[in-house]
Amino acid sequence: MESWMISLGIGIITYISIIVTLRNKVDTHQREIDESHKTIKALFGRLDKHGDDIVKLNTQAELSLTQKDVDNKYVSKELFRQYEKHIDGRFDRLEVGQGKILKFIEDLNRRG
């Protein structure tokens, strides 16, 4: 065999091996890119879900009463008991006053 044929054979084998190697690398990279796209889509899906959860939590937080709102709208049990005692005391005094007025009227009716 002549040397140019050997060189041509080596060249053809080298060319084929380069093409096969490049094709394998391209296929490998394409699979990696596809997997990366799937991962990115999954991550964006999770981000969307987290975003929806954050909106729900913010809405719940805005609708819930704060301690300041509770203090402004409702009285504490202790304060209610104090008011209750105060009102009961006033009614007791009214009853005593009413009893005195009725007794005075009865006394006037007996005299007159």
Q: Name the beta content range.
A: under 5%
Number of helices: 3
Order of helices and strands: HHH
What is the average per-residue confidence, as pLDDT, rounded to a whole number? 88
Q: How many structural domains in the coordinates?
A: 2
Helix-strand category: mainly alpha
The global form is rod-shaped
Distance between the termini: 160 Å
Contiguous low-pLDDT stretches (5 residues minimum) are none
Q: Major sheet: size, sense and barrel closure?
A: none
Helix content: over 70%
Q: Radius of gyration, Cα only, in angstroms?
A: 47 Å
Strand runs, count: 0
Structure description:
The protein is mainly alpha-helical. It has 2 domains: 1-64; 67-112. 92% of the residues lie in helices and 0% in strands. It has 3 helices and no strands. The protein has helices at residues 3-63, 67-73, 77-111. The longest helix is centred in the first third of the chain and has 61 residues, at 3-63. It is rod-shaped. The mean pLDDT is 88.
Short key terms for the protein model shown above:
single chain; 112 residues; 2 domains; mainly alpha; 0% strand
